[in-house]
């Protein structure tokens, strides 16, 4: 539409900027997402968008958060240790504030995973983060949030930010750095997740993500989704090998 700037991302729906707001296609899950954002804001978490209702075209309206984005191929600065600390701590605050909504009778886009301890973001990754002066300032795009266990969300954050898959890029930390980086992220979140627990959860998460992405490919005819699902399956094998390596030690 006239006067709207199409934003990067929005892999499933068109996302545009209008002034200091973001507009995107709404769905049956939008009221739940707005309830989550309002809950987080009321808890003092300002590092998430503010829900501003709906516009005249039936799209949801969110506040725009200015800053630097991190899209693939990821920039080298994304691997700075301070960002592991920032991301782990922010995810913990979001989870803690969401506990009261985890059992609420709400409609979410993705299924609930048991135990439903918190409301998971379900896509906590650099491409859904905003940065300023080398620090994490916001987590955005809660459209696929749904209730689940804390580690379900944490494992995916580790997958993308440690990283634990093949898609880190040429500047990503090498294999020897990954377990220490995982430990740093666990410490920042403040939980007693073991490496094996993270790897097992991530393997299940990647299996589900590959199936979901295959379905999106079939529904849209987009072959790039098939490339993504193939990567998830390769990474599932990689993570399973990491778990086996732990059992051998």
What's the count of strands? 9
Strands of the largest sheet, in order across it? 1-2-3-5-4
CATH superfamily of the largest domain: Aminoglycoside phosphotransferase (APH), C-terminal lobe
Shape: globular
Kindly provide the name of the CATH class of the largest domain: Alpha Beta
Number of helices: 6
Q: State the helical fraction.
A: 40-55%
Structural class: alpha+beta
Number of domains: 2
CATH architecture of the largest domain: Alpha-Beta Complex
**Which series of helices and strands comes N to C?**
EEEHEEHEEEEHHHH
What would the average pLDDT be, to the nearest integer? Answer: 94
Estimate what percentage of residues fall within beta strands: 5-15%
Q: Within the CATH hierarchy, at the fold level, what is the topology of the largest domain? A: Aminoglycoside 3'-phosphotransferase, Chain: A, domain 2
* Distance separating the two termini: 58 Å
Write the layout of secondary structure elements.
Blueprint: E1 5-6, E2 15-18, E3 21-25, H1 30-42, E4 51-54, E5 59-63, H2 81-98, E6 118-120, E7 129-132, E8 135-139, E9 146-148, H3 150-161, H4 175-189, H5 195-220, H6 223-248
Antiparallel strand pairs: 1-2, 2-3, 3-5, 4-5, 6-9, 7-8
Helix pairs in contact: 2-3, 2-4, 3-5, 5-6
Keywords:
249 residues, globular, 2 domains, five-stranded antiparallel β-sheet, Aminoglycoside 3'-phosphotransferase, Chain: A, domain 2, two-stranded antiparallel sheet
In a nutshell, what does this entry contain?
The chain has 249 residues and is of the alpha+beta class.
């Amino acid at each position: 539409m006239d006067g709207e700037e199409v934003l990067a991302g929005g892999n499933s729906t068109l996302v545009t900027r209008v002034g200091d707001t973001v507009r995107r296609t709404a769905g049956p899950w939008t009221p739940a997402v707005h309830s989550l954002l309002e809950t987080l804001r009321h808890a003092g978490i300002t590092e998430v968008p503010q829900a501003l209702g709906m516009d005249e075209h039936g799209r949801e309206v969110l506040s725009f958060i200015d800053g630097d984005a991190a899209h693939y191929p990821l920039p080298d600065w994304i691997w700075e240790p301070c960002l592991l600390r920032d991301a782990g701590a922010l995810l913990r605050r979001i989870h803690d504030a969401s506990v009261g909504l985890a059992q609420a009778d709400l409609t979410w886009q993705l299924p609930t995973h048991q135990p439903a301890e918190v409301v998971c973001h379900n896509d906590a990754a650099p491409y859904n983060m905003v940065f300023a002066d080398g620090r994490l300032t916001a987590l955005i795009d809660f459209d696929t949030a749904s209730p689940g266990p804390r580690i379900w969300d944490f494992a995916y954050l580790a997958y993308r930010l440690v990283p634990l898959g093949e898609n880190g890029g040429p500047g990503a930390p090498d294999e020897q750095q990954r377990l220490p980086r995982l430990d740093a992220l666990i410490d920042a979140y403040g939980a007693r997740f073991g490496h094996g627990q993270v790897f097992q959860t991530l393997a299940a998460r990647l299996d589900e993500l590959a199936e979901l992405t295959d379905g999106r490919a079939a529904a849209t005819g987009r072959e790039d989704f098939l490339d993504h699902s193939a990567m998830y399956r390769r990474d599932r094998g990689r993570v399973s090998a990491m778990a086996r390596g732990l059992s051998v030690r």
